[in-house]
Design brief:
This protein is of the alpha+beta class and 307 residues long. The chain has helices at 5-15, 19-28, 33-43, 45-48, 80-83, 86-101, 106-111, 121-132, 178-195, 207-223, 228-246, 261-272, 297-306, and strands spanning 58-65, 69-77, 137-145, 149-156, 163-164, 166-174, 276-285. The chain has 13 helices and seven strands. Strands 3-2-1-5 form a four-stranded antiparallel beta sheet. Strands 4-6-7 form a three-stranded antiparallel beta sheet, covered by helices on one side. The longest helix is centred in the C-terminal third of the chain and has 19 residues, at 228-246. The two termini are 16 Å apart.
Length: 307
């Protein structure tokens, strides 16, 4: 029996399995749709391992918050098509909750029981790989907490509540009313999403990063032929500019375009008559640092259907 592209599409919609797996299932079952679904289910983990080497640089960032803590996770897939799949989105949302309950410890997350299942997260992930037909991974997780105050989350390019492409958590330590901290926290998180600071303060900056920048600036100043004393002053001035670009508290607040972030916090602290301190922040940008597959996905789909 000839297996058509329409049959493959129908089985993919029914099973959420990969296109090539759907075509093979239909071939093995002589085009019987129900039998093909059963065939895919029986394959299970046997198909998941074959996909483990493929680059997964798409997916979603997920955030989950409670009273004084927040967790953020990155779960990767091979294509944005899967990231728009409701089953995948529910999976990422569940992983965010599990991360919050396990201090964002990746090994604990993977060994935790998956909600509504007798399996742990690692085994459930393998099942998802087999069913959806793409390599997936729970790449990283982080968590912020406060003693008093609030952890605020922000998701840029969100596809659903607390799911998207760039996620930020900001931990504000303060005795101020939490509802009053939300506005400042949200604006700070939006700023961090836009500027991607390297550190919270100058003291937090990597010494290697600062010394590398200083060396570049000294070489530039000396090559201009300036006297040594003037060159040193030039370097210090340029370092201050560097700090204003990469250090959160030294950056200009993107919301108003003129006030330094540290001064914004002082202003709100005065208005609320309570000290406010940024304890920490974390920013996840989907796929950052992953070497992405440059193959045209449309061509890959065409190859699979014709093959």
């Amino acid at each position: 029996m000839s297996i058509t592209a329409q049959m493959v599409k129908e089985l993919r919609l029914k099973s959420s399995a990969g296109m090539m797996d759907c075509k093979k299932a239909l071939t093995e079952t002589n085009g019987d749709m129900d039998a093909a679904v059963d065939w895919l289910r029986k394959k299970g983990l046997a198909t998941a391992s074959k996909k483990a080497g493929r680059v997964a640089s798409e997916g979603l960032i997920g955030i989950k918050l409670n009273d004084k803590s927040g967790a953020i996770v990155e779960v990767n897939s091979e294509t944005d098509f899967v990231a728009r799949n409701e089953e995948f989105q529910t999976f990422v949302n569940d992983i965010s909750s599990i991360a919050l309950d396990n201090s964002a410890d990746l090994s604990k997350i993977l060994s935790s029981n998956f909600p509504g299942s007798s399996k742990n997260v690692q085994d459930t992930l393998s099942d998802k790989i087999a069913k959806i037909g793409e390599n997936m991974s729970i790449r990283r997780a982080d968590m912020l907490s406060v003693s008093n105050g609030a952890v605020i989350g922000y998701m840029h390019n969100s596809v659903k509540d607390d799911l998207g492409k760039i996620g930020v958590l900001v931990a504000l330590e303060s005795n101020a009313d939490k509802s009053l901290l939300q506005k400042l926290g949200k604006e700070l998180a939006m700023h961090i999403a836009a500027t991607s600071p390297s550190s919270l303060s100058i003291d937090d900056l990597s010494n290697d990063l600062v010394e590398r920048e200083r060396k570049i600036l000294i070489d530039q100043a000396m090559s201009s032929g300036k006297p040594e004393e003037i060159a040193k002053k030039m370097v210090e001035g340029r370092l201050r500019k560097f700090y204003s670009e990469v250090v959160l508290l030294e950056q200009v607040f993107v919301i108003d375009g003129e006030t330094k972030v540290s001064d914004v916090i002082k202003k709100v602290s005065k208005e609320l008559n309570e000290d406010i301190k940024i304890n920490s922040f974390v920013r996840f940008n989907l796929g950052e640092g992953i070497e992405k597959n440059t193959k045209n996905f449309a061509d890959e789909v065409a190859d699979q259907l014709s093959g």
